[in-house]
Amino acid sequence: MSKLCGICHFDSQPVSEEDAARVHADLRRPGYVAPEEHRGPGVLVGCAAGARAPRSQGLFESPERRVCAFDGRLDNRHDLLRETGAASGCPDSAIVLNLYQRKGVDGLRDAVGDWSCCIWDAGRAQIVLASDYAGIRPLYYHRNAGTIWWSTSLADLVRWTGVTELSDLYAGAFLLHGSAPGQTPYAGILPVNPGQAVVVSGDGIGKRDFWSLPIGQEIRYRDERQYEERLLELFREAVLSRIRQDTTVCAELSGGLDSSSVVCMADRLRKDMPGQLPELHTFSYTHENSPDERFFREVERHCDVHECHLQLWDYPAVAADPVGAAPVWWERRFQELSRRMAAAGSGVFLTGQFGDFIMGNSLDDTGQVTEWLVQGRLGKAAREAYAWARAMQVPVYPILWRSIREACSSWVPSASPHDSVGAIPFLREDSLVERLRTRVASDEQERFAGSALRQAPPGKRRRFRGVSEVLECRNLQTPEALQHVSFTHPFVDRPLVEFMLAIPSYVVCKPRQPRSLMRRAFSGLLPPLIANRKSKGAYTSTYNQALMPLAKEILTNPSRIEAVERGYVERDSAIRRLEKFTQGLECHEGQLRLLILFEFWLRSYAARQPAPVSPSAAAEWTPS
């Protein structure tokens, strides 16, 4: 999609030619076209469209000296055109700026889609940076004294600002959970949080939420078939809004229910609208003895697609020489996808991400017992608890106790599967130094203290907490290698998500019937083999193939572990667990993967830093 970047000096000092050259160069990086810049006293706002971005994007300046640079897609564009009275050909940036001018930051809630934006409000002398509710399109900023820099590219912003100090809080959170809400690896460079606007002026910086979880919404139908009809309708709209007529559409196809549903709906739309929608290309990932292959090949037979199969061994989950500005999985695979999409002339990539969660793929949804308790239907609650106990093969008493506790207090259960009823608690060694673990726990407690989750309906709090954590962590954000295209997830469509959170939980998922509503609603969309699939593919073997040689490489020189040298990890614990991993023994492997990934990213980061100059050498050096 678009690239945004800019700088603002709130004391109105002129933007230097060096900074102007930086913006000029960043807007002209490969994959972007039609660069635009607005320059005023102390401010420079830049925007460039992705090579295959829709023409509705761009930079817009109003007569009131307000400027908006927009990156993304507006799904309710036609509704907003009617509401604002704008001409049909006006750019999305003009529509978003109109919302801001009429309602302030709160008006951004009306913009439905995947987007980030920057608004320069000359009248108030303030910069507004904002991202949609799910944080799909990235946006970062750095503030120092009276100046703010921003960019949709973390790598570009790091180069521009020269910030090299790493964030201990990010390191700890990433090593524990694989993500760090509200942080980047660099101290002082922060992401714009989903559903939030960062308002910066000469007086300081403030943050305003313009979207929050729909904890007060409730939808109930008399006939359960109405839920199925509405879900299918919303899903159709979610896929259609992400398909453009002017570019080839690509989609991820794993053979699971989520990605298969996206591909099958896109194929149905093309058949329902002959000649109006572009061809569909799918990318599937395979490896030796892959359990997914028979399923994604069944979808390929069912749909009219151009298929491409990538061998995961050729694009490992992690490599010894990562190049990204942050540690990420599958960096090389994303780079290959970018190359192949360019060859196919594609500007859209659809995924099935978030479908697992929002469609109720859960073996523990015992919050339904709580919902019956709150309604005073004790017999129904008891029967429901017994049904879940049988399905989960656990005693009924822990289920009843958790439901009573949630119904009678503001307690919010953890969304982690490790905290599921019946899960066996045991200590999981993570190798973090205690100082870092304590700091992460303190930050999590502070963030949770201000949460509205306690006001959510009992029985749904666990689900709302899971949604909140996924969004906070920006787990759905576009990878840097694909930022110039529309990398998007139909199951994250806001109307669809808000609907699924508002309907009764027992409709979505039942004991021994995860995805109950989805399977019924999509029964006529999916091939029977997919609709009836109960298994789920895992990439354990491919992760191990990539990580095993890296673990052995660390062990060849255990005295030089970068994460240890920086004070993040305990050496003896890390070495002991790495040795167990190479021997195939229990070592809390999921978290150890994060440690290995982070270690090699740290090594790559350290190699990119300029070599320190000794005091004696510095004294002897003279400019040529």
Characterize the structure shown.
- The protein is α+β, with helices and mostly antiparallel strands and 624 residues long.
- It folds into 4 domains: 3-209, Aminohydrolase, N-terminal nucleophile (Ntn) domain (Glutamine Phosphoribosylpyrophosphate, subunit 1, domain 1), CATH 3.60.20.10; 225-353 and 476-504 and 513-531, HUPs (Rossmann fold, 3-Layer(aba) Sandwich); 367-460, no CATH class; 540-608, no CATH class.
- 41% of the residues lie in helices and 16% in strands.
- The protein contains 24 helices and 17 strands.
- Residues 613-624 have low confidence and may be disordered.
CATH topology of the largest domain: Glutamine Phosphoribosylpyrophosphate, subunit 1, domain 1
Question: What is the rounded Rg?
Answer: 25 Å
**N→C terminal distance:** 43 Å
Spatial strand arrangement across the major sheet: 2-3-1-9-8-10
Mean pLDDT, to the nearest integer, reads: 93
* Relevant CATH superfamily of the largest domain: Aminohydrolase, N-terminal nucleophile (Ntn) domain
> How many domains make up the coordinates?
4
Shape: globular
Work out the number of β strands.
17
Highest-level CATH class of the largest domain: Alpha Beta
List low-confidence stretches: 613-624
> Portion of residues in helices?
40-55%
CATH architecture of the largest domain: 4-Layer Sandwich
Characteristic terms for this protein:
624 residues; alpha+beta; Glutamine Phosphoribosylpyrophosphate, subunit 1, domain 1; Rossmann fold; 4 domains; six-stranded antiparallel sheet; 24 helices; globular; disordered C terminus
